[in-house]
């Protein structure tokens, strides 16, 4: 039993068909709905608008453009939000939900997006935020995190504060049926890696570990079926639950080397976050392979009912499993030169993650990182 760990319960969770109908709509509020333009005339959005109108609330609607949120987009959105807004509702995938949480924070804490990139400005609060995910993977509906790209430098960064937990999340697996296969697989892989990294975290949390393990089990069973083209209600529900568990896991036990490397490489590719994480996974696993001390084999065995006797055997299975899933998607280019010519910068970017050495199985050092990035530049990812 570990001597030290922390645990908290936010947000409130409503899961199941039309879970969003449990949204507590108070009288005469000023609400801003953040969503993609493709959802504006959607049944869900139109129904929500009618519900809010029935409560005599005022409604503003922000259409977030496609792609990951950038500092420029965040600042432009904040300028459009009415000054009396006292509730944010995010409806969409992970980038929309991250956007909703960030602007809710800015409306209380003030300033502009990049004031918070390096922690130069203190987060002091956030207006009430409610989230309805339409993808199954990012887990943003469960976390106090928001991942943003610096529009000028291309650098991705994460801000986090307990006030950024959503007040409630409404998870309706049926909403994920409209998501294209490529995006569904990318999202599912992201959720899988959330649970995997939480399970391999060297600090751990005895309350979270069983949840991470369940997330892995659901992913190992359902992602191959999804990649083969099966997408019935039960599978979508299982993947939505895996996303919930993955998000909850990283809220209490942070992500690891896979995510840190992925964020470093992100400025050199337009690859989706989930698929980039999956492509990085083999390199991060090999980086740590001599330091798992049987933990990887234990996790894989429990998740798949296999009987691997070593971490190396489990790693081989895991990497082949990931590669099989990736065969079902179209990957975007990451040029070998972009990695090979920027190894120092990539190492610097990983080393900026000051808490990574406390949770990663292997020591984090520049020489080993440089060798890993050289291997990427030679073999590709």
Notable traits:
single chain; 381 residues; alpha/beta; six-stranded parallel β-sheet; globular
Account of the 3D structure:
The chain is an alpha/beta fold. The protein is built from 14 helices and eight strands. It has helices at residues 43-54, 71-80, 94-109, 181-200, 209-227, 233-252, 257-265, 273-288, 295-304, 311-326, 336-340, 343-351, 356-359, 366-379; strands at 12-15, 30-36, 58-64, 87-92, 129-133, 145-149, 156-160, 168-171. The protein has a six-stranded parallel beta sheet with strand order 1-8-5-4-2-3, sandwiched between helices. A two-stranded antiparallel sheet has the order 6-7. Helix 12 (343-351) crosses helix 14 (366-379). The protein is globular. The mean pLDDT is 94.
Q: Topology of this protein?
A:
Elements: E1 12-15, E2 30-36, H1 43-54, E3 58-64, H2 71-80, E4 87-92, H3 94-109, E5 129-133, E6 145-149, E7 156-160, E8 168-171, H4 181-200, H5 209-227, H6 233-252, H7 257-265, H8 273-288, H9 295-304, H10 311-326, H11 336-340, H12 343-351, H13 356-359, H14 366-379
Parallel strand pairs: 1-8, 2-3, 2-4, 4-5, 5-8
Antiparallel strand pairs: 6-7
Structural shape? globular
Please provide the ordered H/E string of secondary-structure elements: EEHEHEHEEEEHHHHHHHHHHH
Spans of 5+ residues with little confidence (pLDDT < 50)?
Answer: none
Strand line-up of the largest beta sheet:
1-8-5-4-2-3
The SS-based structural class is alpha/beta
- Report the helical percentage: 40-55%
Mind summarizing the main beta sheet? 6 strands, parallel
Rounded radius of gyration (Å): 20 Å
Strand percent estimate: 5-15%
The overall pLDDT, averaged over residues, is 94
Ends: how far apart? 38 Å
How many strand segments? 8
What is the overall number of helices? 14
């Amino acid at each position: 039993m570990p001597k030290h760990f922390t645990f908290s319960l936010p947000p409130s969770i409503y899961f199941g068909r039309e879970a969003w109908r449990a949204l507590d709509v108070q009288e005469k509020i000023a609400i801003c709905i953040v969503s993609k333009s493709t959802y504006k005339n959607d049944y869900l959005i139109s129904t929500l608008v009618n519900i809010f109108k029935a409560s005599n609330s005022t409604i503003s609607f922000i259409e977030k453009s496609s792609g990951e949120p950038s500092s420029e987009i965040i600042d432009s959105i904040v300028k459009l939000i009415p000054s009396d807004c006292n509730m944010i509702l995010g409806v969409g995938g992970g980038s929309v939900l991250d956007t909703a949480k960030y602007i809710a924070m800015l409306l209380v804490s003030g300033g502009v997006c990049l004031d918070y990139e390096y922690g130069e400005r203190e987060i002091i609060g956030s207006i009430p935020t409610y989230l309805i995910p339409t993808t199954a993977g990012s887990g943003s509906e469960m976390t106090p995190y928001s991942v943003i790209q610096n529009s000028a430098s291309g650098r991705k960064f994460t801000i986090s504060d307990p006030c950024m937990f959503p007040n409630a999340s409404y998870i309706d697996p049926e909403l994920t049926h409209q998501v294209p296969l490529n995006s569904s697989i990318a999202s599912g892989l992201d959720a899988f890696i959330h649970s995997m990294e939480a399970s391999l975290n060297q600090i751990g949390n005895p309350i979270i570990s069983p949840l991470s393990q369940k997330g892995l089990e659901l992913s190992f069973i359902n992602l191959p079926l999804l990649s083969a083209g099966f997408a019935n209600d039960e599978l979508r529900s299982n993947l939505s639950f895996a996303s919930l568990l993955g998000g909850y896991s990283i809220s209490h036990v942070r992500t690891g080397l896979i995510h840190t490397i992925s964020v470093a490489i992100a400025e050199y590719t337009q690859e989706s976050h989930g698929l980039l994480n999956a492509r990085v996974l083999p390199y991060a696993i090999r980086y740590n392979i001599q330091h798992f001390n049987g933990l990887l084999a234990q996790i894989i065995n429990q998740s798949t009912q296999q009987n691997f006797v070593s971490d190396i055997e489990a790693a081989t299975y895991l990497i082949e499993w990931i590669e099989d899933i990736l065969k079902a998607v179209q990957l975007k280019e990451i040029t070998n030169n972009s990695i090979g010519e920027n190894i120092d910068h990539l190492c610097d970017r990983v080393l900026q993650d000051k808490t990574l050495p406390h949770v990663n199985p292997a020591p984090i050092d520049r020489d080993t990182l440089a060798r890993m990035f050289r291997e990427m530049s030679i073999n590709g990812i």
